[in-house]
Amino acid sequence: MSAPSLPAFCLRLVRRQLVLAVRRPVEILNPLLFFAMVVALFPLGLGPDPKSLASFAAGTLWIIALLSNLLTSDTIFRGDYDDGSLEQLLLAPQPLYFSVLAYLGAHWLLTGVSLALISPLFALMLNLPLEALPALVASLLLGSGVMSLVGGVGAALTVGLKRGGMLISLLILPLYMPVLIFGSAAVRAAAQGFPAGPQLAILGAMFCLAIALAPLATAAGLRISIDA
């Protein structure tokens, strides 16, 4: 039986990851529930004043999205490492770059895209202006893609450790800072009536750079973790 083509192989990997996530709905719901709970609790600490909530809404939503992404980054390769299928992935004839990209794409679909789609609801709870909602969704789609790709590097380096959750946060959190800065800046600019295009363009450039480089670093990290 001949090996599947590269596109078919990558699609199978994405489908496999999505099916496994559906069978373990807690992994999908955890970041969403965390997002919802923090947004609901935030007005209790800051106060219910609509102007105060609106002024902090952009940064608050982006910080919560970043922390939600961190909650799931450690699990990208953990299950496959525990059952031994990750070693088989490294031995597959298909380039590891594209296999890793399929894993990270599935993670982005499950976390980043879902958070971006529900973010307008929570933004309205924080009194964010309606004209800023498109910038919020666009920035979260691009920024969460960058965070999933960068988080894959940390997940690959710590997959062989029993308690790598804290270590992965220390490794990748500094790399998340530019995404947080430009993502929240795009939302603030749109909320104040200014164009958010420049900030979104920078996020798009980060996304393209992460697609080009992050899977290479992730593949190298997986080889190091498996050989160690």
What descriptors fit this protein?
membrane; 84% helix; transmembrane; transmembrane helix; elongated; mainly alpha
Q: SSE layout and pairings?
A:
Elements: H1 6-23, H2 25-46, H3 50-73, H4 78-83, H5 85-91, H6 96-125, H7 133-158, H8 165-191, H9 197-227
Family: Belongs to the CcmB/CycW/HelB family.
Function: Required for the export of heme to the periplasm for the biogenesis of c-type cytochromes.
Subcellular location: Cell inner membrane
What can you see in these coordinates?
- It comes from Mangrovimicrobium sediminis.
- Belongs to the CcmB/CycW/HelB family.
- One of its GO terms (molecular function) is heme transmembrane transporter activity.
- This protein is mostly helical.
- It has one domain.
- The radius of gyration is 18 Å and the shape is elongated.
- Helix 3 runs parallel beside helix 7.
- It is about 85% helix and about 0% strand.
- The chain has helices at about 5-25, 25-45, 50-75, 80-85, 85-90, 95-125, 135-160, 165-190, 195-225.
- It is built from nine helices and no strands.
